[in-house]
Amino acid sequence: MFFQRNSYNFNKLAKKWSGLCAQAGLQEGCYAKWLQLIADAVGAQGGCLILREGNSASLGVKACLDGRHFSFYPQDCSKLMQWLEKNRRGITRRQILEDSEYFPVKIHGLNFFLQFQAEACVPLFGGQERLAGILVVGPKKNSREYGAACLEVMEWFAAQLAPCLQNGLLTEELRRRQTEIDALRDLKSQMIANLSHELRTPLTSILGFAEILAEEIDGPLLPEQKRHVEEISDGGERLLRTLSALVDMAKIEAGQYPLNVSQFHLGPVLEGALDEIALNGEIDLEVSLNGHTPMVYGDLQMVRQVFRQLLDNAAKYTPRGKVTVSAGRKGEMLEICVADTGIGIAKEKLPEIFRGFYQISSGLTRTYQGPGIGLALSKKMVEAHGGRLWAESRPGQGSQFFFTLPLKPITIRHKELAA
User: Among 94, 124, 267, 405, which is disulfide-ready with 133 (CB 3.0 to 4.6 Å)?
Assistant: First the structure.
């Protein structure tokens, strides 16, 4: 075969390499196939591929042609590692034994070749200065020594491996980080669930006793006492809604919030949301929904929660003025708008308001209370329906919040939504 001649046909090598990459891709399972092609090219009996473990300092054997298990101890050959990284070229066992140039790395080099029963090696670099791995080959099948031509071929293959290694390292790092993110998300979900359970039990008792006091079962209350009981109830209900929102957010992010899809009119849903919020007497509410407004598909409870959040926001940031709810068909979606004449939002802050725990006013003395998760949760709920939620606003001129819902069930999609 042309592979075992003293001169090598690099065009044929490149063609074989390209064919292998096209067939097997650049994944970790291809390491043995790469190694076999390289061993065949230089006529080696065996070989190993040693690669760095992600971004760490440790190296590990990723593939070995003869199936043997090697215990690799980098500390026993660290000087050879440093030499390969500095000189960026291959080396043979015979060179280490006979050439005085390699005397500083002789002991570590021989330790390395002894560990792998190898005759030659070349460094691998994944598009960076740091050593990314080592390509190792065993004795030649014809028992000859490795010469300059063989090292040249191995170094050529090492150069072809560079982008593959870089992609592999990046993929491995992305996979590792995604695993960490998933673990943190699961931990957060579990923590929120536990916290919610621990808080709901005493909170239910507080609200229950507050209701008993408000009904004056144990005797009449003074006006000031009634006001205190109302504040207890309002604060407890607000905390309960916050806990529910946190749990819902965690469930949606984990893909554990199933949609109970049905077809319904928005009017009754809006009325249900209005029953759960308090509009002060200085706000005029105008609703432009009627019998001609198309029915939508979605999770009724989710849509009610979105309405409640948007209406609550409009009331909170509109001390006096007008809140309008309207809807219109946009292709296969129904576009709903909740508009107010309140304080408005600066343009640069519009993308931020849909980020979890964002507060328009912050600090202990902030004017507007709330945990800052309502809009983030609403956005995820709308996106779970295949729609979107956005806002338009100008300071001092009010805000308009738009969201879309499907008119056909085919557009419903429920997927995991990352934070």
Answer: 124
